């Protein structure tokens, strides 16, 4: 019996070569619509699907392969006598190879089309054929990716397609269709296209849809003995997929993690190139405060090392912001990552080039700045266009995954709980510290002066150790004595206030909410320190 191949593809790369080989090897080719027309133009004989099904394509092409004549030919087990007898009885024939790729829902769902327009790119017949063929992979070869055509042709030329290859191709079908279905689910859940969210009940549905596409294999993971790869959301969007590498070595696993944090931290102070306001601007305005006042007319710079900031600052110039950032921890910044929320100029580039850095990321680079930075052969230079946009975060745990909303809230309240109120010149520093400390590993403490970190500590198992380290580091910065302290979470004991008072801190911002809040308030009042409660914790584990 003549073997039959069903070819119906949106992405037609390489399909003429595959079809020509099959035709030359005596296969009958079944096809649909545009694929059939393209193959005929290449003088490759094609049998229309409607000739097999006895039913015309209808509903603007929505229904063409959803027919028993197709799926029986795919699902019939050749070793099962009753299956083959059924095909004979129904005058149907097996289909031995399926080559299908899907309507481009991944791409179209991110193009801002209307809901009705996007729905038309949801493929139904394609996934159905692929799943049928993949289920019966011992008898049916199934292809979804042009990169697999060559290996398959070579196997057919050798006389047989081995079971290992058949099984691998079938597995690829289910990774594709599961990602495809997940992309559709996320699109409908999140209200894309018409802005109508499906409701709070679907914020965390019973089954969590993940739709990720591998971008590249990485040289190694967190450590040299661990394999790793980079995947991006199939729907597009997000800050990292939009970044353009202008120079330097390939990004590593740790580079990517640190770059992600550095960019999130620096864009929390706004990104004028993308029209993005500072994090929590609306919270401040709701409270009648001047939203973003501490960021007005300022460039932001952040240095990250081992996935936590080692310096962060605002200044009227980027060069000034970088100098403040470096001054916070001139030791740890070595080999770190620096991000800025404004374009890099030549003066800043000269300062950046003075030390060894892994990555510099910014919305743009002046031509002379690029020329300076490119003298560093291995420095990765990243042009970043968009602020972070993910609404949820996923963290893998052994056997599962934690999913939470992204922390986009700055504060619930601005409550001065002490007899002393913050001085007017300290308010901008308090807000700066609140924004910045949210990106430091808990227990996080940041000491601030003139919209710049002067001491940062976090990742300790108790808050007083972090406070002591941050204050000690701040005291070591010449000309920048301690002034304001920010904490990501409440003080369980008054010991942090006592340490702050000894270091000359005059204002503190923290969430409040401890059963011992009164003890910390009393300690502040004894030392004349102003303290503000925000009602919002910013843990980062």
What does this structure look like?
This protein has three domains: 4-189, 3-Layer(aba) Sandwich (Rossmann fold), CATH 3.40.50.1380; 242-409, 3-Layer(aba) Sandwich (Cytidine Deaminase, domain 2), CATH 3.40.140.20; 411-533, AICAR transformylase, duplication domain (Cytidine Deaminase, domain 2). The chain contains 19 helices and 21 strands. The chain has helices at 15-24, 33-41, 49-53, 68-75, 81-89, 105-108, 115-119, 125-135, 149-158, 163-189, 253-267, 281-286, 318-328, 346-352, 367-373, 424-437, 463-475, 495-502, 517-527; strands spanning 4-8, 28-31, 47-48, 97-100, 141-143, 212-218, 228-233, 244-247, 299-305, 308-315, 336-340, 357-362, 380-383, 392-397, 400-405, 415-416, 445-448, 453-457, 484-487, 507-510, 530-533. The strands form five sheets. It has a six-stranded mixed beta sheet with strand order 8-13-12-11-9-10, sandwiched between helices. α4 runs parallel beside α8 (125-135), α8 (125-135) packs antiparallel against α10 (163-189) and α13 (318-328) packs parallel to α14 (346-352). The relative contact order is 0.07. The model has no long low-confidence stretch (mean pLDDT 90).
